[in-house]
Amino acid sequence: YARNFLGGMERPDVDKITGLSPVISIDQKTTNKNPRSTVGTTTEIYDYLRLLFARAGKAYSYATGELMVKYTEEKVVDMILHDYAGQKILILAPVVRSRKGHYRELFESMRRKGYLTMRVDGEVVEITRGMKVDRYKNHDIEVVIDKMALPAITADDEMCGTEASAVAAIKADGKYPPLFKKAFGTEEITMDRIQKAIAQYVRSLVSGDTKFDRYLRGEEQLTPQELHGYVLFTTEEGADCFHCHGSGGSPMFTTNLFYNNGLDAQPADEHDRASVTGDPRDRGAYRAPSLRNVTRSAPYMHDGRFKTLDEVLEFYNSGVQNAPTISPLMHHVNDGGVRLTPNDIADLKAFLETLTEE
Q: Which of 36, 67, 114, 294 is deepest in the core (most CB within 10 A)?
């Protein structure tokens, strides 16, 4: 590039000079925009020197003095899994750093793009409709892009297993080797392949274009039957579903909290919430599931006792049992359920069907 500047110069008045080191003479072209321009910046020699040092030199951290090296994607993943073994791992994308504002538009934009959670000032929270923060305080906001699959297997509050036990359990199930061959080319089952399969499956669990989503965006209207079902869903005098499953402001239609919903008068399950917390008040309590695609998630309840959505609706209508640890949010337990009419139940089911993506 510098030759463009060398070619236009006149020959010197002398034919030969001895005793001097070889040099390159460049005529600097100054500009009005930057009177402090140097020969290096004008001819782009500075840029080439930066590139030379970047490729041929060694970089050291200014903070620790350690040599900076380049890792492959596989190496980075291996280091994370080794250094944070047994811990929950989140992949975060920072969007706000120590800035004021309510960021309502940002939260809504992320929600519409399909993201479910964000870390706001160090706390991971679910993105809800109309969500905002204090506009007069500085905030750090990050989007939860992904979660690592291995901690879900090994963490105490998840599957509480080991890599070896997970591999052995899947190998023992005869239906999995053909599936691994179909996905990976051979029937070999390894933890690496299990993690990839789980991660790929989790990425497919995206639901953001149901009829109800389009209704919230103003793109489609609910039928009178569906709209009446929505009213029943969100009122205590109706089906009283919203205490545990939220409403339009909770995109996953769950509070992610634990409740005893009156399945059994004397809960005896050894794997309920009390088995984790040790608190007898949690006997018979389970996490409220998401109602996204609820018509396709049968069987229902923690033990799969209900095979159809109609059976679930009938239970909440007339089959609720008054257990000693039943949730105080089960307001209609003394009546055995919400006692809706057949038409009301049909309308409620019609609304629930709008939460399923076609």
A: 294
Q: What is the mean pLDDT of each run of 10 residues along the chain (358 residues)?
A: 53 74 57 56 68 83 89 83 75 92 90 80 85 93 79 70 86 93 93 83 77 92 96 94 86 88 93 91 94 93 95 97 95 95 97 92
Quick one: pLDDT at residue 2?
47
Beta bridge partners of 259: 286
- Angle 176-184/191-203 helices, nearest 10 degrees? 80
Task: For residues 239 and 318, give the distance between their C-alpha atoms in angstroms, rounded to a whole number.
Answer: 11
Query: Which contacts qualify for 12-20: CB closer than 8 Å, 24 or more apart?
Result: none
Report pLDDT for 23.
59
Is the separation of the CB atoms in 180 and 186 below 8 Å? Answer: yes
- Structure tokens that stand for 239 in this block: 């089906």
List beta partners, residue 286. Answer: 259
- State how far the Cα of 114 lies from the Cα of 332, in Å rounded to an integer: 35
Residue length of the chain = 358
Quote the radius of gyration of the chain (alpha carbons, Å): 32
